[in-house]
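writing this on my phone so excuse typos. first protein, seq and then structure
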Amino acid sequence: MVSGGAGRGVVGLERALQGVVETGRGAADVVGVAATRLLKVVPADIWCAVLLDPSTLLDTGGVHESGFPERVMPRLFEIEHVEQDGVDNLRALTRRAAPVSSLKASTGGAIESSAYYRDILQPLDMADELRILLRERGRTWGLVVLCRSTDSAPFGSRDLAAARAFAAPTTRAVRRSLVVTGTDEGSAPDGPGFVVLDAAQRVVECSPSAERLLARIELGGAAGRPKSCPYAVRAVAAAARAGHPGTTARSQVRTRDGHWLALHAWRLFTAPEPVTMVAIGSAEPGMLIALVLEAYGLSERQRRIAQLVLHGWSSEEVLAELHITRNTLNDHLEKIFDKVGVRSRRELTAAVFSRHYLPRLGLGPLALDGRLTAPPPAA
């Protein structure tokens, strides 16, 4: 059970984050407000909050002003997204039941055994790191990272308990912010752009279109620095380098003005050294429908049914397609209506289209990043 101080902080957090969501501000503002309140209960010397694409676990934005210095970021991305190594690696954390973890505790006190500690924390004179997953129903929407220096006490059980209490309301608010702000149908005036990154994640080439698009993304690092690149772009580039030749990594990132951009990265084996290409362009509505439905908290089966209903399928057609009983379908529809806040199929369609500007939907089941996936098994 959380201590009284942490418990009162959570109650205040719920109210504060609801206010952020109701004013239509984005998910980055949500995690920023939440982290600021968390720091009053769990102090840290370095901290950052990262938003993640639930389907790829790649960065889509966040708050980095008090985070890691620029010089360590290439190695940090390499450990996190390429090597995917370490006891508290992001992907390892998503497979655990607990949403919080202290690196010192995870290593059993032998923190020097961690490459992440040796290469990232130790050079910065940091002695421990606390990670907090923003996760709900198996989907991870973000990560809050707190670090303490050698002059500060390591994170203890009370810190972890307070962090656990902050995780759930923050995750709910992030998800609600996506529902409230929705998606957009804006387009880039001159089409997609291309960025070329070298092995050190430095920008070596950048098309004029890409420059304009990059200017709309939060850098996540030192603003205005020449050759700097948003962390979301560097994360998807790191994922492409980690894959097999020909692999394309995909992600999405939200701009300062609330629009979504799609990122596609792949590696080119050129002389004298390989480079990574990143294409940046407006995300089509069809790429975001699964993320929108996920944001409402729908299960995989409920998302599939909602997609079919939104496309105008009758109950008989849905029953034949999914091989389920009418009672099962009605039960799913009731839960869908409740989560979206509507009372009928017609209201469901009106709500999704009016809130999220989705002119048309594909029939195939979609991953959160818009890729077609295999049909789900029958219930």
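second protein below, same order as before
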Amino acid sequence: MAQDYPYEERPRRRGRKVLITLVVLLLVLAGLLVVADRVAAGVAERAIADQVRQEVAKQDAQSAPPEVEVGGFPFLTQVLDGRYERISIVLRNVQGSVQGDAVSVPRLDVDARDVRASLDTIRSGQGEVVAETVNGTGTISYDSLAKLLDRPGLRLAEQNGRLAVTAPVDILGQRLTVTGTADITVGKEGQVSLRFNDLDAEGLPNVPLARTLLSNYAKGISVDVPLPDLPFQLTVREVRPLPEGLAVTADARDVPINSAG
């Protein structure tokens, strides 16, 4: 019986070799499919980035070249279906002009979900890329906002979760430093309003006229912020002071994220 062992082991060894070969081939094939999938996604991302650039230009705005990432895997099945789980767009150094005043948004992140785009649209760049929901988050720099208020020496910053102001003011012949915070509201149409209702100044003369002058200064810097039209029909829903600036949250539904050809 001992002499039969070598003959029984040979088929087993051949079987293992065949199995290993099949596994290797499957892994290679899977790798090639992943590579092809990512290459196709890259082509689509570049095509969408070019169309987003045109959309931004339509709003009389400027930005660095858009950065686009198509989410979801595999990508090719999404192409065939004409629907994409998510398209993320990053716009840097966004600048627009409103009433002659420049508004700076260092970074605008746009997250488009449930995006519809035909294969022909992706390939040719002609047609609409429509997103069911679009959410945008950006930051308005405090320097840019201070320029809009147009008060020499005025500085804005975040303080305990609120928008704080510091500014030199001449009141009754005295140079005082005014400090305080603002209430921020967002209107139905996405209009952002700043109201400085809580200002004070150390050393303020204890006379009604001094208090009236301080109140007038507060009214002078209480403004409706002239935000530029955001791309993709985004409407502002919330504004929060952060250390780096005013964080703006906006959204929209059923909108094109490209310029239709």
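The helical segments are 5-58, 75-81, 119-124, 142-149, 208-220. thats all i got for now
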